Amino acid sequence: ELKVEQNPLFLSMQEGKNYTIYCNYSTTSDRLYWYRQDPGKSLESLFVLLSNGAVKQEGRLMASLDTKARLSTLHITAAVHDLSATYFCAVDKESQGNLIFGKGTKLSVKP
Amino acid sequence: DTGVSQDPRHKITKRGQNVTFRCDPISEHNRLYWYRQTLGQGPEFLTYFQNEAQLEKSRLLSDRFSAERPKGSFSTLEIQRTEQGDSAMYLCASSFQSSGNTIYFGEGSWLTVV
């Protein structure tokens, strides 16, 4: 059974600091998704990573994928309050879109 | 707005009643997915369609749940004889069939069973 583990589950950061969220998964997959969710809202797509070594950046967020290590990272640079949200990684088990999600990382950025 | 649309956004129902949710995917997206999310958890896959064919169902989808996509466009998810454990947000998502295309989620339908 495919398992997706994120850590940390809770992250309190100060504005301007850098941090990394980790996403480990248990079986082979080369499709990894990152989503953002604000309280009471749906999921906003951030990144789709499709191959080993893939790196994508958008603003203060950068995601990478290492399929051999079964690890993806979401790096936050110089955090700002607007980044406060829950971040989910998800693995596409059979490349069909039936995603297996991690439990999410609740990020709080404080002034 | 041409995103994934879900209706109703909120539903409160008594235990034992039937409820139905509707999802309108992004135009031309041939794949449609249903997920369920409870508080503090990540979404869990329920089922997906490619055009009108239902290709996979999770073991989470008990016999009380049924989903249809009759013309390959909108989809409905019906829950019969609701139980309190069915209380959750039901998320619909869609994508265009292609390797690694973005999967777009709707705003979700919140179900509370009392």
Give an account of the 3D structure.
The complex is a heterodimer of chains A (111) and B (114). In chain A, strand 4 and strand 5 form a beta hairpin. In chain A, strands 2, 4, 5, 9, 10 and 11 form a 6-stranded mixed β-sheet that branches. Chain A has a 5-stranded antiparallel β-sheet with strand order 1-3-8-7-6, with no helix packed on it. Chain A contains no helices and 11 strands. Chain A has strands spanning 4-7, 10-14, 19-25, 32-37, 43-49, 55-58, 61-66, 71-76, 85-92, 99-101, 105-110. Chain A is globular and about 40 Å long. With 114 residues, chain B is an all-beta fold. Chain B has no helices and 11 strands. Chain B is globular and about 40 Å long.
Order of helices and strands of chain A: EEEEEEEEEEE
Counting helices, strands and paired strands, the structural category of chain B is mainly beta
Helix content of chain B: under 10%
Assembly annotation = heterodimer
Largest sheet descriptor of chain B: 7 strands, mixed
The overall strand count of chain A is 11
Measured on Cα atoms, how large is the radius of gyration of chain A?
13 Å
β-strand amount of chain B: over 45%
Number of helices of chain B: 0
Low-confidence stretches of chain A: none
The rounded distance between the terminal residues' Cα atoms of chain A is 41 Å
Biggest β-sheet strands, sense, barrel of chain A: 6 strands, mixed
Low-confidence stretches of chain B: none
Shape of chain B: globular
- How many angstroms separate the termini of chain B? 33 Å
User: Could you give the count of β-strands of chain B?
Assistant: 11
Order of helices and strands of chain B: EEEEEEEEEEE
Biggest interface found = A-B, 24 and 26 residues
Rg of chain B, Å, rounded: 13 Å
Counting DSSP H or I runs of 4 or more residues, the number of helices of chain A is 0
Average of pLDDT of chain A? 93
Provide key terms for this protein.
heterodimer; A: 111 residues; mainly beta; six-stranded mixed sheet; five-stranded antiparallel sheet; B: 114 residues; 49% strand
